[in-house]
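Figure 2 data, in text form.
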Amino acid sequence: MPAKKGYQNRIELLQGTLDMLVLQSLQWGPQHGYAVSNAIRANSRELLQVETGSLYPALHRMEKQGWVKSEWKLTAANQRAKFYRLTPGGKKQLLSERDNWSRMVDAIAGVLNPAEASAESES
């Protein structure tokens, strides 16, 4: 079955990056799940799409970890929704996730461009 045109250029999220992206989105202020998903999509220039089947279990897991707190509020459209906000533990986790991500990017860059990686380690 051919892929739908809108999905052709989307990139699958690497396992483990969803938490970092959600925490980063909540860094900008409390949001309901749909807004978190939209923020990730918009800030990735439409390349990353977080499906509800992945997003809400991740938010619930992060709430159990103490990284986010939630409360029911009304949206701008006057609909009841659960809003999530980052906790101090979530901010600490975000810093850790970002640090891990930077190390991963550097490691992958080293594999893709070994000559550049060895030149940088020699300087």
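Caption note: The beta strands are 31-32, 68-74, 80-86.
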